[in-house]
Amino acid sequence: MKKTYNINNKGYYGEFGGAFIPEMLYPNVEELRQNYLKIMAEPTFQDEFNQLLKDYVGRPSPLYYAKRLSKKYNTKVYLKREDLNHTGAHKVNNTVGQILMAKRLGKTRIIAETGAGQHGVATATVCALMGIECIVYMGEIDIARQAPNVARMKMLGAQVRPALSGSRTLKDATNEAIRDWINNPVDTHYIIGSAIGPHPYPDMVTKFQSIISEEIKWQLKEKEGKEDPEYVVACIGGGSNAAGTYYHFLDNENVGIIAVEAAGKGIHSGESAATSVLGKEGIIHGCKTLLMQTLDGQITEPYSISAGLDYPGVGPLHSHLYKSGRGEFYSATDDEAMTAGLELAQLEGIIPAIETSHALAIFEHKTFKPDDIVVISLSGRGDKDLQNYIDYFKL
Amino acid sequence: MTLKQVQGDDNKNMNRINQKLQENKKLLSIYFTAGYPNIDDTVRVIKDLEKSGVDMIEIGLPFSDPLADGPTIQASSTAALKNGMTTETLFKQLKDIRQTVTIPLIIMGYFNPVLQYGVEDFCKKCQDIGIDGLILPDLPADVYDEAYKATFEKYGLINVFLITPQTSNERIRYIDSISNGFIYMVSSASTTGAKSGFGNTQTDYFERINSMNLKNPQIVGFGISNNDTFTQATQYAKGAIIGSAFIKHLTHNGITTIDKFVRSIL
Ligand SMILES: Cc1ncc(COP(=O)(O)O)c(C=O)c1O
Q: Which of A6, A333, B17, B166 could form an S-S bond across to A27 if both were Cys, CB 3.0 to 4.6 Å?
C-alpha cells in the first residue's frame, strides 16, 4: 500500500491524535465523529459550502506571483492570498464549514476560542450570517493586544468572554471553551479554530482548510503548467493554514513541506512557542501530540509576539510530519518575523498578519534554487496588527 | 478451613475500595488538592479527614490545565503548583501514609502528568505506597481498556470511570464491564463546583441508573456541598463525593477545623 500521512480510521496520524476527553464530552465528540464525514459528503452540504466560499468568502483566493520578492531571494515565490478572504484570514474557510455542520447537527449555540481574534471574528461572522448565538473565549492578554478584533466580534453580535486563568492566552481560552461545552452538552457546537483538539477536529478542520491546496494545484497548473510546487510553506500555531496548504501534497514526496513556528525571543530564551523543538509527546486539549511541558507534565506557557502562534502544542498531523521527517521545521524569532513582514509590505505592497510574517521569514533560514517554485501561505492580513507594527518599528 | 476463614483471607487480599463498598452504610468521600493550602498540608489533611469519619479520600494531583474542573478546584491546583507540588513530591509525602491511615486512598488527576511519569512506574509507585485507585477523567474508557487496564490490574489499582446524564445506556454497560470498583456518577452536565441542589432531572437520572442493576455500585459527585445534598444523593447511590465545598472550607478556615466540616455533612 502507498504510504500515507493522512489520518487513520482510529483518529491517529502515526502515534499522534486520538480523543483524550473527559466522559462529559464524550457524547458531543462522538456525535460529531459519527457524522462529520457523512455530512461533509452530502451533495447539499457541498453545494452550500462551495457557494458560500465563492460568494461570501470570495474564493478562489488568488495565487500571486511575487515578482520582487522572487527576485530578492532568487527563486520563484507564489503567495496564496488567504489574506484576501472575507474577514482577512484563512480561518473563515473552517468556520463556514463548521457552522453548516452545526446546523445539520441541530445545534443552536456556538462557542469558540480565539488567540489573535481572527478565528473569533470568523466565527462571529458566520454566526451573524446564520443568526446563531455566539460566545467567544479569549485570553485577557490577547484581548488587550488584539483590540480591533475584539471590537469586530462585538459589532458582529458575539459575546467575548475573557479567559482569566493560566497564561491568559490561547491555551486558556481553549480550556474555557471546553468547560463551556461540558456545561452545555446538548445545544452547543464548539467551533475549534485550528487543526487541534480531540479527533475528529484535527481532521475536520484540515478537510475544510484543504480548499487552499486544492486551489493551489489548478492555479499553479494554469500559471506554470504543473500542479506541484517544489515547496509549500506555512506558519504553524495549531496548524490549520498549514494543514490546508499541505493537504493535497502530503503523499507526494516530490513536494517539500515546510513549517515555520514562532521562536519568540529565541528558541532557548525561555520565551518561545517553537513546539517541535521544545515539545515532548503528551496530551493537550484532548489530543496526543507534541507540546511544551515541564518534566512533570505540566503544560508550560508559550510566548510569541504573535497571538495566533502563542500555543504550547501543534496539531497531531504536524507532530507526525515532524517525527516522520516528512516536514522540514524551522522557527522564526519575533525580530525575524517583524522584519519579514515589513519587507513584504515594501516589496509587494502587502501588509501581512504577524503570524504570516513568520512564514515569510523562511528566507532567513533556507536558500532555495532559482527554479524552485515556493508557495507560501499568506494566511492573513496585517490590519489587526498595525499597532504592533507601529510600536515595533516606531512608525 | 471454615467459611469464615476463607472470607477473612479474601478480605485481606481485597482492594480497600472493594472492602469499603461492602460496608453497610452510605459512604462519604472527600476530594482535596495535594499541596493545598500549603505544600506540607497533604498528610495532615488526609489524617484529619480519616479521624473525622470520612470513608474514602481522593487526593488531587494538581494539573496546569484541569479541563473538567470549575474555578474552585482550578484555583487550588494553580496554588498547589505554585507551592511547588510535583508528582515526585506527592509520592514522597505519602511514603509512610499507610503506617497510620487505613481508609481507601485514590489519586485523582489528569492523564498527562501520569503519562510523563510513565504509566507503569506511576502504578508501581501507587502500589508501593498503598494507593487503591485512580481517577483520570481524560483517560477515556476505550484507551484504558486497550492500553492500560492490564498494567493497572498488575499493580492492584482500581480505575474509576465517570458517567454523566448524557452517557448512553450502552456506554454505561461498557464502562460497568471494565470497572471493578465503583462508578463515579456525575450529577449534572457540568464542571466541578456547580451549584448544589438536585431537581427532577437529577433524580430521574439517578433512578434510571439504579434500574440498570449495574455490577459496580455508584458514588455521586459534583454539586454536593452539605448535609442536604449528601442525604439526597445517597438515597440513590452507595455514597457521595465532596470536592469544591471542602476546598472552599480549607481556603476560608485553613486545615485546623476539618472535623467541623465533616460533622456538618454527616
Ligand atoms: C493570520 C493567521 N495565520 C495563522 C494563524 C495560526 O493558526 P493556524 O496555525 O491554525 O493556521 C492565525 C491564528 O490566529 C492567524 O490569524
A: B166
